[in-house]
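Observation: inputs received (chain + zinc ion).
Thought: call the complex predictor directly.
Action: predict_structure
Action Input:
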Amino acid sequence: MKAENVSPEDLQWVCRKCNRPLEAGTVSVEYMGNQFTTELPTCPGCGFVLISESLALGKMAEVEQILEDK
Ligand SMILES: [Zn+2]
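Observation:
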């Protein structure tokens, strides 16, 4: 998985719970019954993972495509 899932705009987000800026981190995601790791903006405090709408709509579709091609 490429690090391009994390865009500079995403890292301007601040965790509402901890009031800390999000950092790029490797997270394990489960999608359509498949588990994979990718880099996403995460909160270093509570582990909150930001999945932006564009990621959910675009990248997940891309991931789905990759899984189908396998
Ligand atoms: Zn947090």
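Thought: report the result.
Final Answer: The longest strand covers residues 23-31. Strands lie at 23-31, 34-42.
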